[in-house]
Structure formats: C-alpha cells, structure tokens
Amino acid sequence: MFKVSLVIVLVLFAFSGLYSILTIAAPKLVVSSGFEAATGKTLDSIQDDDFLKSYIYVNRTTGIFGICVTFAGVFIFFKAFSKKAQWAWWSLLIVAGPIWIWGLVNAFIVGDTFSSIMYIVGTVLLIAGLLLSAKTFFAKKPE
Description:
83% of the residues lie in helices and 0% in strands. By secondary structure, it is mostly helical. The longest helix is centred in the middle third of the chain and has 31 residues, at 49-79.
C-alpha cells in the first residue's frame, strides 16, 4: 500500500501545481466562478477596472503561494516521505490538510462549483495518500 500512497501523493502535488499554475495563468477562469457564486453577478459586471485588476492580482499572488507550497511538498516528499520519515507524514497533514479542507469548506459555503470540484479532488488525494501510508509510518517497531 505504501507504493500506492507514494503515487497518490505525487499526483496530489502535480494536481496542486497545475491548479496553482491555472490560478496564475488564467486567473479570471478561477476567480469568476467564486465571484459569481458569492455575488450572483458575473466578473464582467465589475465597473471599477482598478478593483478588478487588484482582485486578479491577489488571485495570482495566491497562485504563487500555491506553487511555493507545492515545491516545498515535493522536496519533503523526495527527501523524507518516500524514505518513511514520520515527520514528513505529519508535515503533509499539518500543511496540506488545512489548505485543501479550508478551500473545500469555503467553496461549499459560497457555492462555487468549479472550486468545489478542484478542492474535492485535492482533499480526496490527500486523505487517500495519508491513510494508505499511515500503517507504514506508524507501525509498531519491534523492541
């Protein structure tokens, strides 16, 4: 099961990286769904161009944060998680858990279908990767 969990966690990082890149490269696509769900208006209805520019800028910045967290996760994965260092399992839970679960809860509260789908995929990958590897990381060691 550990090898399967390794593949799942790698897929999680690939998905996270692609989602972050999408947030940077096509911010209107990512932002428009949440904006419409929260306000009932389309993104094009914003009359203030400066506000729209800053809204897109903040979203791109969030994408950069996502890329950085993803790179850190990949580094931890190759240096520690794949070598069964218990702290790597905990770091994945503590860092990635709140990101994916908060995103999912927030997307559901707002009613953002696009983001809900993205966060469901990420949360399922995270939970599967953690649960399938838990036995390996927390097996009792012979004394």
